[in-house]
Design brief:
The chain is α/β, with parallel strands linked by helices. It has 2 domains: about 100 residues, Nonspecific Lipid-transfer Protein, Chain A (2-Layer Sandwich); about 290 residues, 3-Layer(aba) Sandwich (Rossmann fold), CATH 3.40.50.150. The chain contains 17 helices and 11 strands. The strands form 2 sheets. Strands 7-6-5-8-9-11-10 form a 7-stranded mixed β-sheet. The chain has a 4-stranded mixed β-sheet with strand order 2-1-3-4. Helix 11 packs across helix 13. The longest helix is centred in the C-terminal third of the chain and has 20 residues. The protein is elongated and about 75 Å long. The mean pLDDT is about 90.
Length: about 425
């Protein structure tokens, strides 16, 4: 029996089903259907050792990022077969299956020391969600080069879920991102002369749209040096330096309210469950009575618990925490804000992620040149896996719109949702 045949047998025992993929081993042997949607290549026995030491998504991710495992063909099919996007891989292996898998792994040379993690893995120290550690966590993800993000995100430089009127290619990513920014502006009822705070402003796209299309002035805050540098450059190029200020600042350091409205788009995932009530209280204190707050964030299912050994925690968003929708709503309401509208955009994020993966693959050579192959692999597998998780409903994303009522209870909100979406 060839090494590839034994690998497919091992995958069958681990997954509880035929893998449905072609497998290529380090000795050149191959096994599996010729017409399989993808071929998984294990380039060395070290790939198997990684999986033997960490038989979960972390081990698989480390093997892929290091180049010990590669995928030719449909990456989504390979990830789906590995259980990505599903709550579990089935009932699990019994003792007899475990013993058999162990014997196969030993014959293939999986016995040995635990391989060192790839250098792209985050290594943070200190207490969770201090300002210093939050800055380091944000830097790990965002300070990898603005040119890299241009290739992946496209000209809009918007790193959050787009809103699609039609699926691509009938609608472009740029149009969908513009529609998302405009939807946020309308929900916040922005008008000329208003002052907007954009928490986690990224490369400034929300403020640029709000200022140019709605006449507002605003402040954007980020913890990423590279984001702040490029955002300021984009503001200057748009001739809006007199109306937009970009700060390298923690949300806990903003003291110059009140603002007429606050947007937080794709930032609350970095806050953490222990800090979410303080985060909500700060936003509530910074917005004027009658002012609106929009929180746009990914959410995990209620009743599930995040794992700090997950691939995304270690490689993509260190210290990031997805909160259930109910936790976010409770935090906003406990801060004195009144939640008036919740919109789920789960399918929209799946479409967005697939477009980002397409951009990355289209510009693969340039992306590898800019950030190295390991980091490019991190982004490819995390975005593809996230798309599957949104498609399956494992995770969701919601825009939660809240208002700070005046002392007499007035909200100045429209009576209908139709009016709200028109900017009322």
């Amino acid at each position: 029996m060839s090494a590839a045949d034994r690998l497919r047998e091992l995958l069958h025992d681990v997954l509880g089903q035929d893998p449905g993929l072609r497998v290529r081993a380090w000795d050149g042997s191959e096994s599996g259907p010729e017409g399989a949607p993808a071929t998984v290549t294990l380039r060395s026995r070290r790939a198997l050792r990684r999986l033997a030491w960490d038989p979960n998504e972390l081990g698989l991710g480390r093997a892929y990022v290091s180049g010990d495992i590669d995928v030719d063909g449909d990456l989504y099919a390979a990830l789906r077969m590995a259980g990505v996007g599903r709550p579990s891989n089935g009932p699990g292996m019994g003792w007899s299956e475990r013993a058999k898998a162990g014997r196969i792994a030993a014959r293939l040379g999986a016995v040995g020391r635990r391989p060192a993690p790839p250098p792209e893995e985050a290594r943070l120290s200190g207490e969770l969600h201090t300002r210093r550690r939050d800055r380091a966590a944000v830097s790990h993800h965002y300070d990898v080069g603005n040119d890299f993000y241009r290739h992946v995100l496209g000209p809009s430089l918007v790193y959050s879920c787009a809103v699609w009127r039609k699926p691509p290619p009938a609608c472009s990513l740029e149009d969908a991102q513009r529609d998302k920014l405009d939807l946020v502006c309308r929900k916040l009822a922005l008008t000329s002369g208003m002052r907007l705070l954009d928490v986690g402003c990224g490369w400034g796209s929300m403020l640029l749209h709000a200022a140019s299309e709605y006449g507002v002035s605003g402040v954007g805050i980020t913890l990423s040096n590279e984001q702040a540098t490029l955002a300021r450059k984009r503001v200057a190029e748009a001739g809006l330096t007199d109306r937009i200020e970009i700060r390298l600042q923690d949300y806990r350091e903003v003291t110059d309210g009140p603002f007429d409205a606050i947007s937080s788009i794709g930032m609350a995932e970095h806050v953490g469950e222990a800090m979410v009530r303080e985060y909500a209280a700060i936003l509530a204190a910074l917005v004027r009575p009658g002012g609106r707050v929009l929180n746009h964030a990914i959410a995990r299912r209620a009743g599930t618990r995040p794992s700090k050994s997950s691939f995304i925690w270690r490689y993509v968003f260190p210290d990031g925490e997805l909160l259930p929708l109910e936790t976010t709503v409770a935090a906003l309401e406990s801060a004195g804000l009144e939640v008036r509208d919740v919109e789920a955009l789960r399918e929209h994020y799946a479409l967005t992620l697939r477009e980002w993966v397409n951009n990355l693959e289209r510009n693969w050579a340039d992306c590898v040149r800019l950030v190295g192959e390991g980091r490019a692999r991190v982004w490819r597998v995390y975005m593809a896996g996230s798309a599957l998780s949104f498609e399956s409903g494992m995770i969701g994303i919601n825009q939660v719109l809240a208002v700070r009522p005046s002392a007499d209870g007035r909200s100045d909100m429209p009576l209908t949702r139709e009016a709200l979406l028109l900017g009322g």
